[in-house]
Amino acid sequence: MPTVDCDPDEARRRLEDAGVTVEAGNTEYERWQASRGDANAVAYDDKVVVQGARPTDLLAVLRDHGGRAHVYFDGASRGNPGPAAIGWAIVTSEGIVAEGSETIGETTNNRAEYDALARALEAARDYGFEEVDVRGDSELVVKQVRGEYGTNNPELRKRRVRVLELLESFDRWSLEHVPREINDRADSLANEALDHA
């Protein structure tokens, strides 16, 4: 579970400014607790611990904004179309800041790749990063988003538009195709989600 080293009073102000309801803690050690979406936060003397299915729902408010991150994404489909899942990771000089995976029903591999990219960009945006260097092992998705390949499939075209909208929310971005071994964390997360579905 993510931990944010911070002043709990400042963290409380940030949450309240963002419209999050903050309540008293449940024990003498808990200064306060808050919930938003699929995330729960508990404050102690010098840190806030965030739990839940989507910790980014609160972490985006609690962390200092700005900076640059490397974003890795991968989608997987068994059957193409078949059961599908996505995986993503956000990495800074401090290591892995956040990662996630989830099953997304039945779809094609290319749609899963796009969905993974969109979810990774949403997380990076929610964390407040201003610059992202995005990496994935889907040459098709990377080249379609960069405009090097056409996007004739209506479902992929719709997803491409969504990804471009998300990329516009950053001050600077790059998108590169990398070999699978460079993208191994996102690949593992997507496949683990399928294995446990």
Automatic annotation (TrEMBL):
InterPro entries, sorted: RNaseH-like_sf, RNaseH_domain, RNaseH_sf, RnhA-like_halobact
SUPFAM superfamilies: Ribonuclease H-like
Residues annotated as domain RNase H type-1: 65-195
Regions crossing the membrane: none
Domain of life: Archaea
One Gene Ontology term of the molecular function aspect: nucleic acid binding
Descriptive protein name: Ribonuclease HI
Classification lineage: Archaea, Methanobacteriati, Methanobacteriota, Stenosarchaea group, Halobacteria
